[in-house]
Design a protein that fits this description.
By secondary structure, this protein is of the alpha+beta class. The chain is about 40% helix and about 15% strand.
Length: about 250
């Protein structure tokens, strides 16, 4: 393994600064990010040196089995040595050099018995703690419930406005219909009283003047045509179709 700046537990690093204290068990550190640009500019980020870079972050626990291997000048990710130990350890589960590295923290109780605890990933030089699956589900469900509740509130407010407008329109229509259908008998009696009083006050209409002697009212063409049609109908009604139409119209036996 290439030699890189590392600091054992309880000692100071190259800059004389004590290493960060190990995080408390169960501490949620998903809201922080670690990045050391000076280290990235000095050393390449690959599967051999990524753990040394991870050991500089506050996510690293200095009492792990990997740190004991580092003190013995053994690569901290050597599975042959880690499988013989018990306790907390880190392992590199996935690597896509040089952009993505996934490091898993687990508790080892035997060569074949390990219990996963937390997961970290190094993305383009920045180290993050991955959230637990239960927290992801809780966050997604909370977000979905928020949007569903917001949608229901919006629909309910719009339906209330529509129902209020419809009720108002129905009330107005019923009032206008009732006002149209209602007959005010007092107003009718009042109008009849006014007409009767006017009729009593006004003089009677004069009779129509008589026609002069020898005057005959003119007849129009329509009047003449109407009188002729009436006479023709009368004649047709009085004539018998056999007797009164002459011998040529009678049926010969």
């Amino acid at each position: 393994m290439a030699a890189t700046p590392s600091a054992p537990a309880g000692s100071a690093n190259i800059d004389g600064v004590a290493p960060p204290a190990p995080p408390l068990p169960g501490t949620d550190m998903t809201g922080i990010c670690f990045r050391d640009q000076l280290w990235l500019n000095t050393y390449p980020l690959d599967r051999n040196l990524v753990f040394d870079y991870f050991a500089l972050s506050p996510f690293y626990e200095w009492t792990c089995n990997n740190e004991q291997l580092r003190l013995r000048s053994i690569h901290p990710l050597d599975a042959s040595h880690l499988s013989k130990m018990t306790g907390t350890e880190y392992t590199l589960s996935e690597a896509m050099e040089p952009h993505l590295f996934v490091i898993r923290k687990q508790k080892r109780d035997g060569p074949e018995k390990v219990i996963p605890m937390l997961t970290y990933y190094v993305l383009d030089g920045s180290i993050y703690q991955a959230p637990q699956l239960c927290n992801v589900f809780a966050s997604r469900l909370g977000r979905a419930l928020y949007h569903i509740s917001k949608a229901f509130n919006t629909v309910a407010s719009k339906l209330e406005k529509i129902g209020y407008v419809d009720a108002e329109n129905e009330t107005t229509a019923s009032e206008s219909k009732a006002s149209k259908e209602t007959i005010d008998f007092k107003e009718i009696k009042r109008v009849d009283h006014i007409l009767a009083s006017l009729q009593r006050k006004l003089p009677a209409a004069p009779p129509a003047p008589a026609f002069p002697e020898g005057y005959t009212p003119p007849t129009t063409a329509e009047g003449e045509k109407g009188s002729e049609d009436q006479q023709a109908e009368l004649q047709t009604a009085t004539l018998d179709p056999i007797i009164d139409q002459g011998p040529s119209k009678r049926v010969k036996l």
